[in-house]
UniProtKB/TrEMBL annotation:
SUPFAM superfamilies: ALDH-like (SSF53720). This is Aldehyde dehydrogenase. InterPro entries: Ald_DH/histidinol_DH, Ald_DH_C, Ald_DH_CS_GLU, Ald_DH_N, Aldehyde_DH_dom, Aldehyde_DH_NAD(P). Gene3D superfamilies: Aldehyde Dehydrogenase, Chain A, domain 1 (3.40.605.10), Aldehyde Dehydrogenase, Chain A, domain 2 (3.40.309.10). PROSITE patterns: ALDEHYDE_DEHYDR_GLU. One of its GO terms (cellular component) is cytoplasm. PANTHER family: ALDEHYDE DEHYDROGENASE, ALDEHYDE DEHYDROGENASE ALDX-RELATED. The active site is at residues 213, 247. It comes from Stakelama marina. Keywords: NAD, Oxidoreductase. It holds the Pfam family Aldedh. GO terms for biological process: aldehyde metabolic process. Belongs to the aldehyde dehydrogenase family. Residues 3-440 form the Aldehyde dehydrogenase domain.
Amino acid sequence: MADLNAMLEAQRADFMEALPVPIPLRKDRLKRAAAMIADHADSFCDALSEDFGHRSREQSMITDIAASVTPLRHAAKHVDGWAKADKRPTMFPLGLLGAKARVEYQPKGVVGVISPWNFPVNLVMSPLAGIFAAGNRAMVKTSEYTPQVASLFEELCPRYFDPTELAFVSGGPDVGKAFAELPFDHLIFTGATGIARHILHAAADNLVPVTLELGGKSPVIVSRGADLDRAAERVAIGKMMNAGQICLAPDYMLVPAEQEPAVVDKLTSAASTLYPTLLDNPDYTAVINDRHYQRLNDWLDDARAKGADVVTVNPANEDFSATNSRKMPLHIVRGATDDMTVMQEEIFGPILPVRTYDTVDQAISEVNRRDRPLALYHFGKDDDERRRVLDRTISGGATLDDVIFHVSMEELPFGGIGPSGMGAYHGRAGFQTFSHARSVFQQSKLDVAKLAGLKPPYGSTTRKAIARQMKG
């Protein structure tokens, strides 16, 4: 195991020695980070596919390569504006007397990044956009489930960064535990809610501020009057991308009771069109490992045992039992009930429960009796209903008439709420998350304390000042 404390102390010492962090240096780090990914895109795609057993090359280019370069370049373009001090008004009459107030954004120091396995490039580099824009250094703990990607990061990083700027650490749960216990200046964790509880406990001992990007059961509400063909296709795309191994994947659908058969038929048709074959289809990704593959099949067995009708979308009638590829068809779970595991846990795979409602208020209640999700999706044409859904539910983010897309809008804060996350990043929000907003007040040259009656001995001037304040 690397000497994590020594690594942290070297970064912090160099950070403190180099303060303040000039904007050109921040841009340079952002550009080097983008180059590290862009220059070695093919190697990263190969590593991703090896770690997954098979991963669509084009998907990797979209979700891990381009989606990493974009936020880094966006930050380099906008950091000048983000880093400007914000002028704030002063209380009357201090502004008239020459006093000034502002907020200055300072780097925090060394930020720890604990990244997940599902997008093991993007979910390192996207946080780094805000971290570097804010002027920080970073240490990254990669996932043990993607060892090829982790090894590639450790090989390439020294070519682009001094270890006091950026360093990568790999290893299992013991390394992860030690990493989370380090006294960082900020820590961002992306992963499962259960592990996040341990991360928070570890960070609490050092009072480390934490950003948690988690998941949950993100619902899709299909309204009466929605274009069912469009809704089914977009849900199928979102659910089958990365084989459903996405924190923002639609986790279950809520559809009008009378439209449930049509929705299932259209989902089946859309999935079959998108992926007419699966086993040898280079566009379709495998489940990450045997444990997760078995977990998903166990959950399907549980649903069947409890009365669900499971529709397996296998358009080419391929024999999945005769392969160890860990590719898994889309499974639509009809009649899913609360006692089924698929309705209790985040699925993180190509399984989609479909439930019914009679009124939109029933759908809203269904969402609200569960933990607050990372995302909410709504398809429909009724603006009043859509407004009601948005007003009466709480989620980390929302996409309307599609799924997942809000995460790709770089200037929309991305984050969860409650069990789906804590804090947000992306764009300006990421810069502010990884910055310390320091208040600066510059007093007037006049003796304001005397004018305001703040100097003892207190007298009539003091009483008049109190009276003015109390009047507002």
